């Protein structure tokens, strides 16, 4: 007993002598099992925003988040953002957005933290090796829907704050929280809320940080840009009913033939988008920017192996990353109306619908791009001389987002990563679209940075989504370090 008492006393004095942030790190290490249990409780709530039958679960998830912030001493407003009309005509409430505040010292930096706690649908029979809503730890990984996207990162922020408080250390910044429950379904209602609260809730925020993305490799990263997205629908109709190919084949202008020709006219075999003028607004690539890509850790062979292909459109690491993040791309996604079941069916479909999207980069504009696409496809269709009816429509459009990597917030992010992981941060972009980053930056005119803690193999949106325990715990330390570093500005 004497030996244990002496050891405890020495440990107490050692903690008192160590720097405050090191004490926070030690506390986080000692409480990691509690953090895993907390994540398990959140994962159990099936907050699928796209599933109307789960709307009550999403609302409950928002309430749980609000209660967690209140336990930290914060104030919380569960903000009503209206209703959603389902295709059936039924009206259901949108989940409230959590707007929280912690601290109001006018002499401190104020940081806004954005995250979401809704998830993509998941069922065991989809091919999961574990119950997607029962957090399962296996081989150092925490498996469960939402573990990486985005419940784990949201909890890591809250645990980092709790660590400061448990050690009776004054939180070095003021914090504001923006947590939503519709990100996986287009963030319905959020843009209107941002505009409505811009002169009040957001007015004194200095920086906004988002942790809803992942590293490119095993090396920690800061994300400073994402591509935008325009999603198009082409509809071609040749008759008022499906036709028997034996009776009508060779006598009509078939809708499917027209549609395939239109889709084939969009992009060539090297990935080059054939729509005239599409590159006219793309910000020119500078030599200084190109240098950023040379230092990024990215293995082409591993990338090819992961996706199961033997050859890519581009040969060098730099060119692959540039075309993944920095240049526009066009993808064809599918055709509706055509027979796709097993067996043979000799039918000429009366109406078919093609779907394709274009990823936008700065400074491309969705409305201008839409006009370019429609003008081009109308010209291609006219040149075919088909009597069929053809329509092109823009289903949805969002602009790209890019930040200034020389911003003070990015300096703080770099220092925090160096302190926790002992390496220099990689500066990366995302090829996908995270509209909230641009919405927050455009509406508030504040600095926005993505500070991810997920790995590229976390399988977000897929079966067996996971977050490694190491990333979860070290990510909590990273957020604590960021809070300390950003307070110095």
TrEMBL record:
Q: Which residues form the Peptidase M20 dimerisation domain?
A: 224-379
Q: Kindly state which keywords UniProt assigns to this record, in alphabetical order.
A: Carboxypeptidase, Hydrolase, Manganese, Metal-binding, Metalloprotease, Protease, Signal
Q: Which domain of life is it from?
A: Eukaryota
Record's Gene Ontology CC terms? cytosol
Give the family, as the similarity comment puts it.
Answer: Belongs to the peptidase M20A family.
Q: Where is this site: Important for catalytic activity?
A: 244
- Give one Pfam family, short name only: Peptidase_M20
Q: How does the cofactor bind to this protein, according to its record?
A: Binds 2 manganese ions per subunit.
Could you state one GO biological process linked to this protein? proteolysis
Q: Where is the active site?
A: 118, 183
Output one GO MF annotation. Answer: metal ion binding
Q: Which residues bind Mn(2+) 2?
A: 116, 149, 212
Q: Which SUPFAM superfamilies match?
A: Zn-dependent exopeptidases
Q: What is this protein called?
A: Peptidase M20 dimerisation domain-containing protein
Q: Does the keyword Cytoplasm apply?
A: no
Q: Where is the signal peptide?
A: 1-16
Q: Where does Mn(2+) 1 bind?
A: 149, 184, 461
Species in which this protein is naturally found: Scyliorhinus torazame
- What InterPro entries is this protein classified in? ArgE/DapE_CS, CNDP/DUG1, Cyt/Met_Dipeptidase, Peptidase_M20, Peptidase_M20_dimer
Obligatory cofactor(s)? Mn(2+)
């Amino acid at each position: 007993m004497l030996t244990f008492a002496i050891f405890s006393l020495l440990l107490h004095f050692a903690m008192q002598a160590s720097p405050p942030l090191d004490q926070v790190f030690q506390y986080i290490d000692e409480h990691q099992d509690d953090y895993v249990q907390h994540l398990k409780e959140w994962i159990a709530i099936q907050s699928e925003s796209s599933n109307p039958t789960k709307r009550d679960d999403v609302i409950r998830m928002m309430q749980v988040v609000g209660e967690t912030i209140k336990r930290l001493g914060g104030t919380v407003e569960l903000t009503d953002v209206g209703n959603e009309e389902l295709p059936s005509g039924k009206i259901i409430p949108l989940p409230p957005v959590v707007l929280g505040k912690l601290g109001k010292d006018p002499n401190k930096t104020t940081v806004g933290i954005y995250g979401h706690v809704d998830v993509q649908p998941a069922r065991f029979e989809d091919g999961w090796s574990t119950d997607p809503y029962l957090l399962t730890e296996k081989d150092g990984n925490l498996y469960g829907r939402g573990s990486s996207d985005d419940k784990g990162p949201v909890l890591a922020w809250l645990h980092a704050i709790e660590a400061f408080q448990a050690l009776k250390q004054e939180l070095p910044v003021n914090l504001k929280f923006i947590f939503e429950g519709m990100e996986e379904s287009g963030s319905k209602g959020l843009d209107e809320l941002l505009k409505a609260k811009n002169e009040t809730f957001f007015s004194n925020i200095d920086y906004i940080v988002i942790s809803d993305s992942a590293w490119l490799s095993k090396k920690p990263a800061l994300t400073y840009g994402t591509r935008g997205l325009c999603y198009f629908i082409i509809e071609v109709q040749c008759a008022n009913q499906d036709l028997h190919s034996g009776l009508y084949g060779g006598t009509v202008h078939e809708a499917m033939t027209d549609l395939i020709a239109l889709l084939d006219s969009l992009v060539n075999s090297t990935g080059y988008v054939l729509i005239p003028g599409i590159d006219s607004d793309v910000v020119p690539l500078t030599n200084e920017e190109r240098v950023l890509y040379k230092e990024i850790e990215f293995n082409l062979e591993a990338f090819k192996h992961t996706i199961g292909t033997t050859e890519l459109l581009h040969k060098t690491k730099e060119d692959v990353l540039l075309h993944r993040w920095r240049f526009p791309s066009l993808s064809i996604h599918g055709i509706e109306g055509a027979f796709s079941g097993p067996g043979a069916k000799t039918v000429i479909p009366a109406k078919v619908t093609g779907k394709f999207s274009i990823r936008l980069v700065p400074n491309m504009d969705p409305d201008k791009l839409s006009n370019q696409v429609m003008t081009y496809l109308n010209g291609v269709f006219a040149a075919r001389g088909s009597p069929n009816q053809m329509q092109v429509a823009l289903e949805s459009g969002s602009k790209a987002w890019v930040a200034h990597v020389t911003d003070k917030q990015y300096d703080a992010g770099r220092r925090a990563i160096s302190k926790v992981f002992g390496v220099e941060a990689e500066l990366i972009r995302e090829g996908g679209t995270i509209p909230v980053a641009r919405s927050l930056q455009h509406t508030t005119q504040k600095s926005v940075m993505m500070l991810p803690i997920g790995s590229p193999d976390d399988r977000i949106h897929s079966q067996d989504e996971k977050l490694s325990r190491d990333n979860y715990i070290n990510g909590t330390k990273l957020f604590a370090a960021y809070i300390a570093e950003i307070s110095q500005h």
